[in-house]
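pinging the channel bc i need a second pair of eyes. not urgent but kinda urgent?? the chain im working w is below, pasted from the shared doc
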Amino acid sequence: MSSNTPPVAKKIPTERTHHGDTVIDEYAWLSNKDDPDTTAYLEAENEFLKQETAHLSDLQEQVFQEIKSRTQETDLSVPSRKGAWWYFTRTEEGKQYAISCRVPADSETPPEITPGERLDQEQVILDGNELAGDSEFFSIGTSSVSPDGKMLAFSTDYKGDERFTLRFKNLETGEILPDEITDIFYGGAWAADASAFFYTRVDDAWRPYQVYRHTLGTQDDVLVYEENDERFWVGIGLTRSEKYLVLGAGSKITSEVRILDASDPGGEFTIVRPRQTGVEYGVEHAGDFFYILHNENAENFELATAPLDDPGTWTPIIPHRSDTRLLEIDAFSDHAVVHFRRDGLTGLRILPYPADGASWRERVEAAERNAYEIDFPEPLYDVGPAGNPQFTTRRLRLAYTSMITPPSVYDYDLDSHELILLKQRPVLGGYDPADYEQAREWATAEDGTKIPISLVKRKDAATPAPTVLYGYGSYETSIDPSFSVPRLSLLDRGFIFAIAHVRGGGEMGRSWYEQGKLTRKRNTFTDFVAAARHMKAAGLSSKVVARGGSAGGLLMGAATNLAPEEFAGVVAEVPFVDALNTILDPSLPLTVIEWDEWGDPLHDPEVYAYMKSYSPYENVDGRPYPPILAITSLNDTRVLYHEPAKWIAKLRATARGGPFLLKTEMGAGHGGRSGRYDAWREEAFALSWIIEKGTS
């Protein structure tokens, strides 16, 4: 193979027929992971990628060194209190993974710890570097300390397939118990007395569907719940009060919760309210009552209360508002905190309980009358509760960031109403936020809807400027304004970074999501194209390089099919680009669960026709396409590697333009490389490609 000759994927026509429509898929063979031809093709693509990007090696190294030099490699998180301990993590220069630690607690004020130094009585709970060893990939799925602070449950993954092995560590002796449980999913919860740990397993479609109880020192784990509806997945947790185990089952549109006294791990879970299609709810224990956050007749959700002995009877306390999406409720012994979204920004509402001995209903009503919101000065930002494991406390830990403000950790004092800055992530090398500016633009969609765009640039950057336009637009996931150290390598080269808050996400409330799913999914893609065109028409952008991952990769493919001329380049990471074929196959991971998001093309001909009209793989044509870089991982269990592999093969065989490049991590999962230095190098690779396409 010559240096400028791309691999050619062989064509093996595979015929399928749905709803009278016969389609020939010439690259379906790439879905066979065990076929040596598949491995050979992916390796050939990787080799071609190296050849095509070899001229960027100096720039890649330069960007990597910029990321590294701006990062305080030896650092630590702000300690969070739980019980008798302060918990925090360390990172150390030269080490890929974090180290979890704790020190004894004697007040509500976290200890001051200097990076690189050790405190008296500091205890290492878990060292990711020791656990990882020489493994190419390493990830921790669960790290949960028991309520009494004596035991640690932790799980590890060495492949990237999100199949974890659960183990237990005695934190008093350092001993790893012989108990070992393989093939479990994320999460888990302790019983109150630490005698048992609850965990979840997945089925063949990668759906968490079973909850088991493991009693320490035994081998025969007990199945406590199994979800037979393939649209629902399960999870389990322990309330902040440590009084209740909460077992949740949920689909994309419906939820059902069961609770159990955490002091009775062998007991039967009690259902809060039976599932009702379209109704989602969550349960938060608040001492002598429950908070219920739900969307029954409340599109943007409503906050209600319920008595402990009748949790299915809900009394509204914060009614539905069309302009405010309630996101979550955090309950503490003498206050509660509502996390919400309004006007495309997040916020926090404090509900302080009165100090007198009123009934819980009177306390809640008084708290809502006296409720207030915390103000923040920047026009664009993201804020939310963070690290609040302690039920009894007069401080609220919150995380704050903006596109120019590095991630910051505050304690909010409920008595003085003071925001106390505990830590702002250091950005080395003389970073000055005053050199940058952030703003919001509004694009006009095809149907007249105004689409918000958040952007950041250097104040001295000339416009129109090369622009990276990022988008996601699915699952009501919001891409909020936030800070990025690697992004500075773009901004300091005169780039604009912009986020198109397209429909299908949740930035503007639940209706924003509803307008970009099922048979209105096309809005997501046309919104993104409208944002790209607006950035140019407003004189802000010269060239636009689009970037998105996972469901955002679907956005990349669909938007490029709609308007390939608008983009100077496209980076699609673990992209969901073979959407129709995937959602037609219920044997694939998560497919049935996804029908509530995309529709069911297997049984509904209208959904089939609609998905076929936008699925990127199905709609590649012979027009000139921009250069495209698709990045995937062989062990990804969420968006399988063959989707981008097939897409790139079809682009190369059908479209003009390009080049079309495929990068496959042969030993990673959905999140890519696991070590932080490896992740920085991967980001430097993507950024160097973007810089070239934006400036050439």
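so The two ends are 27 Å apart (CA to CA). and The chain has a mean pLDDT of 94. — does that match what u expected or am i reading it wrong
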